[in-house]
Design goal:
By secondary structure, the protein is α+β, with helices and mostly antiparallel strands. It has one helix at 112-131; strands at 12-13, 17-22, 30-37, 41-46, 55-61, 83-95, 101-107. It has a 6-stranded antiparallel β-barrel with strand order 2-3-4-7-6-5.
């Protein structure tokens, strides 16, 4: 019997580069690669260890994101329009034999509008992949 999907938002396999750092650290962070992403969170591979409960500041470039921002002022954040910046909480982190960590995070402080924008963005990405 097939398990019923409990996730509110569909996940899409992805290979985006992101930068993450623990919120209490005053560093430039480390680069990581996403494995999948949704409007609720990200699964990524990182060279650094994180613990469940850690709060991360994540910045990632999403191609075409500016089309879905609905006119939000990116200049208020001091970032280019296609960079999305968010706080996220580590849900799980597993060390792999290659020394990298698989890290699952859920987004914090995203209001319903931002979640809907991200869901629309990924729905559009799905449509483009389905056409190929």
């Amino acid at each position: 019997m097939k398990k019923k999907e409990k996730r509110q938002f569909k996940r899409v396999e992805s290979r985006y580069i992101l930068n993450c750092r623990k919120i209490e650290e005053n560093t430039c962070g480390v680069d990581a690669i996403t494995k999948d992403i949704s409007a609720a969170g990200i699964l990524f591979e990182a060279p650094s260890a994180y613990e469940p409960g850690d709060i991360l500041h994540i910045e990632m470039t999403l191609p075409g994101w500016e089309l879905f921002r609905g006119g939000k002022a990116a200049e208020d954040e001091g970032l280019p329009e296609d960079v999305h910046s968010v706080l996220a909480t580590v849900v799980r982190a597993l060390k792999h034999s290659d020394g990298f960590y698989e890290v699952a995070v859920c987004f914090n402080e995203l209001d319903d509008t931002d979640k809907r924008l991200l869901a629309d963005y990924f729905s559009d990405r799905y449509a483009k992949f389905d056409e190929l």
